[in-house]
Amino acid sequence: MPVIKRYPNRKLYDTAAKRYVTLEEIARLIREGQEVTVIDHASGEDLTAVTLSQVILEQERKREGFVPQAVLAGLVRAGGETVASLRRTLAAPLNLARQVDEEIERRLAALVRQGDLPAEEEGRWRDRLLGAAPPPPDDEALQRLLAARDLASRDDVHRLLDDLDRLATQIDDLAAAAQERKPLP
């Protein structure tokens, strides 16, 4: 993971590459999938979020509005947890069936431990409860069902999550760019 040191003159120094870098080069590193850490040279303070926000702001300036203004305004209104909480909300249904099965297993085991269910009955109840659901529809039928109810498919949710990850990176970059423009106290 590249560690970038920010000096008082606002220059950014990549300690791994042993050279000064620009915000655009930091953006390139992130697009290539690298995790970047930015620290203040004098204080050791972590400036990663601020720097990534600066990168987004710089890209926003160059591309004339590549992040919708409503999205930016909503993020400012809601605070820093918005993208993370939205991502968690979208990802939760993906593992719902597995979570239900695990909860059934936990409750059956608890009933046996408490003596409310004979151990020899646990397997029969597990089979009844876990096997009680009708077989899942095939992919084509499931796609039709989701479309008829105007619901997102798993692929749609994964695409949204990927878009949110990219948006979060861009927002961090914009915030960093905005911070870079502020005069130092």
- Indicate the proportion of strand residues: 5-15%
Main-sheet strand order equals 3-2-1-4
Topology as a string of helices (H) and strands (E): EEEHEHHHHHHH
What's the number of structural domains? 2
Task: Give me the number of helical elements.
Answer: 8
Q: Quote the average pLDDT.
A: 77
The helix fraction, in percent, is 55-70%
Overall SS class: alpha+beta
Q: Termini, distance in Å?
A: 30 Å
User: What general form does the structure show?
Assistant: elongated
Q: Could you state the oligomeric state of the chains shown?
A: single chain
Describe the structure.
The chain is of the alpha+beta class. The protein folds into two domains: 3-83 and 170-181, no CATH class; 92-161, no CATH class. It is 62% helix and 8% strand. Strands 3-2-1-4 form a four-stranded mixed sheet. α4 runs antiparallel to α8. It is elongated and about 75 Å long. The protein starts with a strand and ends with a helix.
Fold blueprint:
Blueprint: E1 3-6, E2 12-14, E3 19-21, H1 23-31, E4 37-40, H2 48-63, H3 69-78, H4 82-91, H5 96-114, H6 119-131, H7 139-148, H8 154-181
Parallel strand pairs: 1-4
Antiparallel strand pairs: 1-2, 2-3
Helix pairs in contact: 1-2, 2-8, 4-8, 5-6
